[in-house]
């Protein structure tokens, strides 16, 4: 395990920050945890509310099997303990957007126990030592509704569309010691959830958000009193929260005060946190087993099905890309960070291998460079002119095959790709009609070389006398004579042969 060197410099010396995160991830499901109401984002207020969600008298919750399944799959992806027996509890508190007066959650017997995530602390050097962040548990719970304060000058409205939506609360151990480590943890967790398909990871829409627990201490001393900043919805904000809270707490302690255990909110406009309420302990919520719900018991067949349904996960995929495909550690890490990027790469790799007529490991580096560098550069330069509906794997593979066969250069390939994105025309037709082909006609190239050497006899003598750098001059003159359409590899070979004869 790599220890962080991040420290807060105070008047009395260095302070260490201790961070734990409670990530709330909305479970991917067509319906809520205990009702059949829809979960689509952005619906009109109070249009996705069942009688159960609104806590009408006599309504009983019925667990959603898919939500349980997704939580179990997530736990397995995090190498966590899966508890075959778990139980739902009632967490009692009053709030205007919680119609029941309690939240159905899991405290004493969560569905998932201890696990861990291995994170990289240097994105530009994936081979640098990483760090293991412990997962304490994952429990399943229902979300509350939402108060809307901007709809009326004197009243707040309540939208219950989110009421009853299924959440996984993924609780880390207080293993993080810097904003960078916390950011790396959330990015890696989000990546895994999206690979598994248990959460879409859309932090802007609130389907993944973090409660950030921060405390400070002198290095090596006991943990200090922590604060919890609620509902932070981006990695950048999360890191800002940690930096602000750590410095604020150090200032409080060094001025003779004490840190109060409390819940705080983050103001992204000011980049600071503010007090919301004193932090309740578990006993304040009067937890007890929910009498309307039986314990959740998972049999071996269900667990085996969950395990068999897991995809290849980011770390395993990255290792395969490096070991089997021969990609660099950096390219493998970037390609596997987002599930969509990995899917695009693998689809194009299969198409390119077929179009070029070589096994996948032989073309993997070429495809990776296209996916990570060339294609994004062209798309960015075109802006709104780029129609991504034309950006099919087969069309991209056809362009890569032209480059591999030497019929088009790398520069010409970019031009072909630009025209493809604008028009959707066939790459081969574009290359032919737009003159974006390079010649491999050795006879024409040899004739051009012969003329250039004859017209530059003095430079030929200088080259043969040891001025090797003049080789670039001859290459440039040859390409100019061929109007840039000669195959550079063949030009190099024929020039060397001519100059050394």
UniProtKB/TrEMBL annotation:
A biological process from GO: glutaminyl-tRNAGln biosynthesis via transamidation
Family: Belongs to the GatB/GatE family. GatB subfamily.
Gene: gatB
EC number: 6.3.5.-
InterPro entries: Asn/Gln-tRNA_amidoTrfase_suB/E, Asn/Gln-tRNA_Trfase_suB/E_cat, Asn/Gln_amidotransferase, Asn/Gln_tRNA_amidoTrase-B-like, GatB, GatB_C_1, GatB_Yqey_C_2, Gln-tRNA_amidoTrfase_suB_CS
Protein's job: Allows the formation of correctly charged Asn-tRNA(Asn) or Gln-tRNA(Gln) through the transamidation of misacylated Asp-tRNA(Asn) or Glu-tRNA(Gln) in organisms which lack either or both of asparaginyl-tRNA or glutaminyl-tRNA synthetases. The reaction takes place in the presence of glutamine and ATP through an activated phospho-Asp-tRNA(Asn) or phospho-Glu-tRNA(Gln).
Name assigned to this protein: Aspartyl/glutamyl-tRNA(Asn/Gln) amidotransferase subunit B
Catalytic reaction equation(s): L-glutamyl-tRNA(Gln) + L-glutamine + ATP + H2O = L-glutaminyl-tRNA(Gln) + L-glutamate + ADP + phosphate + H(+); L-aspartyl-tRNA(Asn) + L-glutamine + ATP + H2O = L-asparaginyl-tRNA(Asn) + L-glutamate + ADP + phosphate + 2 H(+)
Assembly notes: Heterotrimer of A, B and C subunits.
Record keywords, A-Z: ATP-binding, Ligase, Nucleotide-binding, Protein biosynthesis
Domain of life: Bacteria
MF GO annotations: ATP binding; glutaminyl-tRNA synthase (glutamine-hydrolyzing) activity
Xref: NCBIfam families: gatB, PRK05477.1-2, PRK05477.1-4, PRK05477.1-5
